[in-house]
Give the backbone structure.
Amino acid sequence: MKRLPIIISIAIFTAIMACSSSKTAADTEESSPKEALRARLQSVADSGKTIFGMHDATVYGHTWKWEEGRSDVKDVCGDYPGVCNWDLGWVERGRQVELDSVPFDMIRRQVAANHKRGGINTFSWHLHNPKTMGSAWDTVSCVKEIVTPGTPLNDTMRVWIGRAADMIASMKDEKGNAIPVVFRPWHEHTGKWFWWGHAEPEDFKALFRMTREVFDEKGVDNVLWAYSPDRVDSSEKFFECYPGDEYIDILGTDLYDFTPDDPEGYKALVRRQLGYAAEHAKKTGQLVALTECGANDVPNPDWWDQVLAEAVKGTGVCYLTVWRNAWDIPEQVYGVYPGHPAEKSFLRMKSDPSILFCSDLNNY
Ligand code: BMA
């Protein structure tokens, strides 16, 4: 074959490379909303920092409700949490409000508002027991039937998961683009308080895989998937019900502080359990998060900066999420509010450069 002059060869080669590299599958992947979210969380983890998050943070608080965009956290420190968690409970039955009475339309608006200001949105799901139509806390066993094809409960659950998928797919920005979110179904399965906590390990894995399958069938792809066992005493237990790396993007864990008189005990618990996740994530490149935590009523006035912020330092956790300041149950306080005895500690945590709030996320 006749040789082309060197300069023409270089030009052709460069043109081919430019063309093909702008269209590779990897590039398309990287520019998807989900991959953009993964990259942001990864860069937070790489910087050794942790985003502070809270459940239902901008729709109600300790003494108020349905003031969209208000936040007890912002009332105290002038900034929003960087992660807002929302719940899908009751979407499975086609309801317009979730189980704590937050309208799904309000959630949609607040997810978009949080996304617009640079915040990250996550979802949990306290869904009904499909066998009894009782609540998530109705522990009548049903998972084996759910994961057995051809059973009525399998059909029901496919419809229910489909409704969750549609709701998540409906999270859009003002231009109509999908907003990437973290979804954390079947949380705290190592505890015995939710019906899915009573499944055999293989059935639990099948339930998780089936959930992803339904999302995939519907083409819902704006989701990073999180796994979040409650406290366990070994790495084996942590991964006993794990559906597999291909199903999970974020290795999370839910750990509440029930021992306010023993701050060292809680810190050790958090570090030990996040260690199980981090050890695995080191091999796979997954993210690690403290997906739910809190101390009800925050009885230790130094808890935020001296216990929580200290517990996550050096663990590689990209975000932590505390539960709600319940509008309907005044004794349920997992965040802060103006005048709370631990307010000063919260402000000290806010000024810790390793704990990020919403406005810090513009750098990620
Ligand atoms: C629980 C409590 C309940 C609430 C549920 C779902 O931990 O806060 O009051 O209904 O979460 O948000």
Observations:
- The first strand starts at residue 50 and ends at 55.
- The chain is about 40% helix and 15% strand.
- Residues 1-5, 13-28 have pLDDT under 50 and may be disordered.
- The radius of gyration is 22 Å.
